[in-house]
Amino acid sequence: MAEKLYKFHWDCGRSGDVEGLFIAEELDVKNALGSEIYFGEILGKHSEVYGSFDDDDIVTLDVSPQTVVELRKAIGTNISGYNPLDYLNDEEDE
Fold it and tell me: For the CA atoms of the chain, what is the radius of gyration?
């Protein structure tokens, strides 16, 4: 599977929003769905932003494969904001 450009969004109520624009392998995103994500206090002290990574939280942006390649080359895989794949809760003791 190829890399794609994704937009992530969580509405955290009056605390704010968590958003991100990133490049990832389609299979990595599919495998992460249903996993727990823990961002910590990214929206301020005691905010504790966490939850389940669901299909509704992410949109695949319709851009050409060449655009993805060019973005990756110029900027990297994390374009802006937060990449939820970087915050997967891997703790096995919970």
Answer: 14
SS3 content of the chain, % helix, strand, coil (to 5): 30, 35, 35
For the chain, give every domain's residue range.
3-87
The residue assigned the tokens 């769905």 is 33
Strand order of the β-sheet with 17-25 is 58-60, 3-11, 17-25, 78-81
- pTM strictly above 0.85: yes
pLDDT at site 89: 83
Query: Residue 88 carries which DSSP code?
Result: B
pLDDT in tens, 7-24: 999 999 988 999 999 999
Half-sphere exposure of 74 (CA within 13 A, CB side): 8
Give 43-57 as a DSSP string.
TSTT--EEEE--GGG
Joined tokens for residue 69: 């390649």
Alpha-carbon distance of 17 to 13, in angstroms, equals 7
